[in-house]
Amino acid sequence: MTKCMNLRSLSKTISQIENDRPKSLKILSELYAKKRGVPILGITGLPGAGKSTLVDHLIHHLRGQSKTVGVIAIDPSSPFSGGALLGDRIRMQRHATDEGVFIRSLGSRGAHGGLSQATHDAALCLDAYGFDQIIIESVGVGQTELDIMSLATTTVVVLVPEAGDAVQTLKAGLMEIADIFVVNKADRPGAEQMKIMLEAMVAMDSKMGTWLAPVLLTKADKGSGIAELWKAVLQHGEILKKDPAHAKHQEALRRAQFLEMCGEAVKQHLKEKLISDKKLKAILEKVAKEEVNPYEALKKILPSFVRRGRGR
Amino acid sequence: MTKCMNLRSLSKTISQIENDRPKSLKILSELYAKKRGVPILGITGLPGAGKSTLVDHLIHHLRGQSKTVGVIAIDPSSPFSGGALLGDRIRMQRHATDEGVFIRSLGSRGAHGGLSQATHDAALCLDAYGFDQIIIESVGVGQTELDIMSLATTTVVVLVPEAGDAVQTLKAGLMEIADIFVVNKADRPGAEQMKIMLEAMVAMDSKMGTWLAPVLLTKADKGSGIAELWKAVLQHGEILKKDPAHAKHQEALRRAQFLEMCGEAVKQHLKEKLISDKKLKAILEKVAKEEVNPYEALKKILPSFVRRGRGR
């Protein structure tokens, strides 16, 4: 981090964008101009896998190297999100007074479809504000939550030794997004077998010729295996830099993000119109009361919104 | 079910709507006209709670009463979705040749934000085609997956006796959506304590004055507790019919669904324009290559899409 930053103003900026995105385009544009392309580490896995403890120790490890860390937590069961057991919350407190660490939780329900966007924006804020490393912790189930991992430069999938859990996890689509596997709570029975099974799966299903996802054993509650994990993250980052497929992938990601951002903007605009415009509001209320067929109503409304827009 | 239906044509209709919604408005409108308001039972809970086994036995129970059942599975780990262990799949086969049962899995990744809409549409299809009962099975984590449960008339949250699991589940937002709790795998230690704990929580946090969510014990793998569960579902349905708050809630739901549907329609329209229109496509490519600031590009594009639309 090059300059002394103001964490309170950072927090305010993220909230402002989250609460009123349409009015925050100017801020987002300025942040984008300051963006440096900080690597994003994604940590995902089923509830109870120990993701937050792992993140806690990763922060500690990075702080030991004087690196500043910005964390975005999207796991509803994460202690970062404030929903956890007292023990967890106290454990996390050790970073509370550290100016080199910033933790933000996202993912309150109700922000329909807006969670991916909010995470993207928050990551942009952390990047522009000058953190050395960004970490996104997200629960490894759910369409939105899995999609968010596409923001990560490197994605770590955290499992526990119980075999059933692993099977569930892999079924849930985690296999394809893993750059690194971590078998956490490795002092439990079955850790070694799990490692062997995962390594066999990785060997069969190598998503990239240049990188075979390693399988690491950690005991996050004791801080064991953290240094090795961080080493693997750095190695993966180095490989990516030399991989032309990665640059193509980043381009495709930016394309998809822009399409999504534009689409969301018009969607929000129409939703507001439907509530504020008298005529449209009347249709909405008829639909709510089942007095008109919603699909017929849509057919009526749509043309006035989509006729224009043929270029600029 | 009043008439003999053609399951193959139902399957085709759902696929057609899923693949090209903008062109399916006519079909949706016709389906809506046939809609009868069939009750929807939602089954949710963490992966591994035994949701699918429970659904399997519920189907069996309802078939015993000659009721026809349509199931939508949105759990990526559900055997209905095809990702399960062989044993599960074979177990489910017992309904494969039954014309009174239709099972559809949804939730392939990639359909950004479209999962709620797809579930809504599929439920409409099942309703219009004449099933007596609709069941939606959804994994109990993830923003989209939890939101989908708002479609359900009655929501059953399935837990297992392990306390950690319960705590995680309740933190993840399942507490507020539960109309009925099921402690499944009730032959495991801790089932009774879990029941007592849940009952205490329900008593403290009654979301509706007229209904206190009951806590039931089941052993779904043995079919035990299923009849009691179904009885509770029916009781909850009866209570709702007399509850004026429920009618209000349904109205609010239809309002939100219509807003979402209109919003999604214009969003898709804009996304297609951005790819098909030459000028817009050029901007998109510049954004992808980081040659222009995406927020500046959005500011440029937006006005031509949102200026109109002041009523009809």
Word description of this protein:
The structure is a homodimer of 312-residue chains. Chain A has 312 residues and is of the alpha/beta class. Chain A folds into two domains: 7-242, P-loop containing nucleotide triphosphate hydrolases (Rossmann fold), CATH 3.40.50; 255-306. The first copy, chain A, contains twelve helices and seven strands. The first copy, chain A, has helices spanning 7-19, 25-34, 51-64, 86-92, 115-128, 143-148, 163-174, 191-204, 226-242, 244-276, 278-288, 294-306; strands spanning 40-45, 69-73, 101-105, 133-139, 154-159, 180-183, 215-217. In chain A, strands 3-2-4-1-5-6-7 form a seven-stranded parallel beta sheet, sandwiched between helices. In chain A, α4 (86-92) links the parallel β2 and β3 (101-105). In chain A, α1 (7-19) packs antiparallel against α5. The radius of gyration of chain A is 22 Å and the shape is globular. In chain A, 46% of the residues are buried. Mean pLDDT of chain A is 83; it is low at 81-91 and 308-312. Chains A and B meet through α2, α6, α7, α10 and α11 of A and α2, α6, α7, α10 and α11 of B.
What's the CATH topology label of the largest domain in chain A? Rossmann fold
Full CATH superfamily name of the largest domain in chain A:
P-loop containing nucleotide triphosphate hydrolases
Oligomer: homodimer
Structural class label of chain A: alpha/beta
Strand order of the largest sheet of chain A: 3-2-4-1-5-6-7
Largest interface: A-B, 88 and 87 residues
**Which consecutive residue ranges of chain A, at least 5 long each, have pLDDT under 50?**
81-91, 308-312
Named at the architecture level, the CATH assignment of the largest domain in chain A is 3-Layer(aba) Sandwich
Fraction of residues of chain A in helices? 40-55%
Q: Tell me the distance between the termini of chain A.
A: 41 Å
**What number of structural domains do the residues of chain A give?**
2
